[in-house]
Each structure stands twice: as C-alpha cells, then as structure tokens.
Write a structure and sequence with these properties.
One of its GO terms (molecular function) is DNA-binding transcription factor activity. The protein is about 40% helix and about 25% strand. It is of the alpha/beta class and about 300 residues long. The longest helix is centred in the N-terminal third of the chain and has 25 residues, at about 60-85.
C-alpha cells in the first residue's frame, strides 16, 4: 500500500477538526482540495475513513482504527525533522500554544516577546479560548491550564502559582470604600457567567460567599474592562493589574486566592526534541514574567 504523507496530514487535520473547512483553513488549502485528498486516501486504503453528513466528518470504524497509525507516522516525521535539524541552539518554525484568555491577554505577550528575542525564527500562535484546549485533536502543541487534566495520553507539569484579589476602579472605591467583607454588599459584582465556568478553579464567587454577578462575561479581558468602566468589584489576576493601573485591590489580607498554572503536552511529544527544548525555555520565561508582573501589581 503506497501512502502519501501529505494525504496522511490531511486525514489527521480532518479527523481533529471534524470537517473539511476547519482542516482547509489550518492547512491553507481550499476545502475541495482537502476533499479530494481524503477521497484519494480512501481509495488507496480501500475503506471509507469518515462518515460524512451536513454536520461534518466523523471517523468511521475504519478511520478510528487508522488514526493511531497516522499519528505514529506524524510523530516519526517530527522526530526525523529534529534529527535533520541537529541540535542547534536556535528554535524555528510554528508553535501553537493554547491558554485561558486571562493568561493569553496579560501574561503571554511578554513571555512571547522574550521567546522571539531569543529565537527570532519562531512563529508563535496563541489560542485563547474560554474552555479547555483539546490536545488529542491537536488544537495546539501545548496548553496552559488551571487544573491538571485527569484523562488522556498527556504529560502534565506544574508551571507556577499565581494570585488573585478583589479589585475595583479607584474612583468607585473613593465613593464606596471597602474595608471589610460586609462593605462588598454596597457594590455590584463583576464575574463569570455561571454556566460557562469551564473549570472549578474559576469559581471565585463561591469563595466570596456569593451566588451571582450583576455583570458577567466568559472573558477575563471583558471582565477587566467592565471593572475599569467602574461597574463594580471583581476578582482580578495580580499579573493583569499592571495593564489596568486605574484598578485598586481591596481586602488584600482578608480575601486572597492562589491558583496554579500547568503546562500540558501530548504524551507522544516527549519524543520531539524541538518541543522539549521549546517547553524548557518557555517555562523559564513564563515563571520569570509571572513573578515580575505580580511584583509590579
């Protein structure tokens, strides 16, 4: 059976994206070309690899059996690329990082700046989604999470602890000071939309003894802007505060949260020298920048 590696790549992207359009966008091909590649591969293997419907492309039983072999070929190709590249100090090419939007907006920009200063040939892609990044579908090369995943063929490493406090606009707090927890009752609360809290570590209102927010968003960046507009009090990452100098923390000793970031990779990527080197350097810069931003808060 004579298989074309480019067709295998197309198969993997369609399998992970569950459709032609998403795969075509990632591969920078048109959907019709992706469809022809899939048809050609199915002709070679002699079986339908996908169940096609208006809702998308779902793996058939044959496709599900074929998937791990295609992933093994992908890992072998990556390992071969590492071997050909040797062990030079410069990192290059694309690396896709998935992260919660607070981390992506207020921490990763400075980390990426350091990475690119040190390795100008890198191409960094940041996916900021209000949900857990699916590494099994290769949505990213690595993901930053606030809870260690409990399932999947993944490697998990704790990156660092970070801190959060209750904060509001300084003009608002000048009118309605907050000296005790009882004073919170005089303020609107800004927070997450309850049914869109995708990780239990983000359930800050429960720790405040509250069950609702007067103004809510699934985005940390939107929440921060709502606070900057003087709409109320909300829980803010300390590392985001340098980007919002008009916000002031309250109840610093009475209400302080500590959470952790974890870096997660697909287990097979442990064999990829380039990603191992990238992760080691990235982790160091990440911890340094987190500590610096919290010091400046």
């Amino acid at each position: 059976m004579d298989l074309n590696w480019d067709d295998l790549r197309v198969f993997l992207h369609v399998a992970r994206g569950e459709g032609l359009t998403a795969a075509a966008r990632t591969l920078r091909l048109d959907p019709a070309t992706v469809g022809r590649r899939i048809a050609r591969l199915e002709e070679v293997v002699g079986e339908a690899l996908f169940l096609k419907s208006p809702q998308g492309y779902q793996l058939s039983d044959a496709g599900a059996r074929y998937l791990p072999h295609a992933e093994a070929a992908e890992q072998a190709a990556r390992a071969a690329g590492d071997a050909l590249a040797g062990t030079t100090e410069d990192l290059s090419g694309p690396v896709r990082i998935g992260a919660p939007d607070g981390c992506a907006n207020y921490l990763l920009p400075s980390v990426c700046a350091r990475m690119l200063d040190a390795h100008p040939a890198l191409e960094l892609q940041i996916i900021a989604l209000p949900r857990v990044i699916n590494l099994s579908k290769r949505e990213a090369d690595l993901a930053i999470t606030v809870s260690p995943p409990e399932t999947g063929r993944l490697t998990v490493q704790k990156l660092a602890d970070y801190h959060l406090h209750l904060a509001g606009h300084r003009d608002l707090l000048a009118r309605l000071p907050v000296a005790t927890r009882a004073d919170i009752a005089a303020h609107r609360i800004v927070g997450y939309i309850p049914d869109m809290v995708f990780d239990r570590e983000l359930d800050y209102l429960t720790e405040l003894g509250l069950d609702r927010a007067a103004v809510a968003s699934n985005s940390v960046a939107v929440q921060l802007n709502l606070l900057r507009a003087g709409l109320g009090l909300g829980v803010v990452h300390d590392f985001a505060l340098p980007a919002a100098p008009d916000l002031t923390r309250v109840l610093r000793t009475d209400f302080a949260l500590r959470r952790s970031f974890y870096i997660v990779r697909h287990a097979d990527d442990q064999k990829v020298v380039r990603l191992r080197r990238f992760t080691r350097i990235f982790n160091e810069f990440f911890r340094d920048e987190l500590a610096r931003l919290e010091r400046d808060a």
